[in-house]
Write a structure and sequence with these properties.
The structure is a single chain. By secondary structure, the protein is an alpha/beta fold. It is built from 16 helices and 19 strands. The two termini are 20 Å apart.
Amino acid sequence: MNIVGPAPGVCQHDAVRAIPPITLRAPRRRRREAGAVAELLTAAGLPIHVARRHRLGDWAYASNPGDIAGAPEAVLCAGEGEREVIEQARPDLIGRVWTTPDQDDAALWARRMAGRYRPPALSVPRRVSVIGYNLKFVRLICEHLARTPGAEVRIDEWPKFEVHDAAATAAAIEWAEVVVAEWCGPNAVLASRAKRPGQRLVVRLHRFELEREHWRNVDIDAVDAVVTVGDHYRSQVLEHTGWPADKVVVIPNYVDALQLDRPKRPDAPHAIGLLGAVPWRKRPDRALDVLAELRRHDPRYRLLIKSERPEAHRWIWEDPAHRAAFEAFFRDSASEPLVWQAAGPDVAGWFRSVGTILSVSEDESFHLAPAEGMASGTLPVVWNWPGSDGIYAERWIVSSIAEAAAAVLAAQSDRPGVAAAARRDIEPYRLEVVLAAWMQTLFG
């Protein structure tokens, strides 16, 4: 199996890497623990042996960052405290650090790890190019393809939505048997016009692109499938574009439940969270209103926001209406228990401190944050934005500030039951389920 890309989890082009058999490298003091984990994974179909020497592609069994050499494909550690220390010191490893499970969950964990890191081979080898700007939404799909025997993957990630290396993009399209255009922008236009007979083209269309004009220049006759994230949004795409209904399919966003399912901190039940607060349609003011209502009942409640700042986006901060709304929000929140944390990849760690995740936007195509929270055992409170009931169960949906606060207060009496129900409800969005749908769409 070959991937064009420099390392696991990195989507770029120009370097070829073959993933070797797995060696689990452990310091001498942890060799026995590492051996037990290796036996567990080997029994699940993921052959591993323990050794001292480190090679590219090896795994590491670690208790601190000093135990880790290079950039291993995966890092295993004994507990959440060790994982937290490693992720803080090595943010480049976020998403690749795993805690070994309790005995009761060990067999299931091992099977899922085996499926994740060594998936089944393709029946017919295929060359796949993924082309587009900002590939964070398909990063794990890229990694899965890279690990799939029989798949060769080339990644052409554009530095901007409409800026690219023309020669590299042309070469990626020409080389591939299957082309994935992530975002329906100029990349999809190029791919549709350059498609040759026998090639397969799959375009993933987000909400953002319907507000642009690029989709009008896509040769839809050359496209085999347009992927959207939900039934409501699929209907909007069909109405807006007039494209053939049989070409527009639904594959939801994926949730990396295996990474997100982590133990909560003791004070999490009284923390409400907002993951993404810009642009203004995310309505952080509603989150502030929910906080105020909750604090009327219990002053321990606080609001945690993880998001980019509005000032970081020129188009937001230079728009008078946007800027005025955020400035009013900052004035209103100045005396409230609010912590604003920068956007970043450490979402799973952030959810350890969050008891309730809010989705109070005016509109969304999917909104992944509630599903990520649910995978972590967090109560989702979802405003009834159009299409929300097609993605989230009715019991999680509210229509007012008072309903949102009441849902949070009611959940306090049965936190374990709420967490279990939330985890059950995101089964269709689990990474392994969504990956299977993508493999079917790409290869049939």
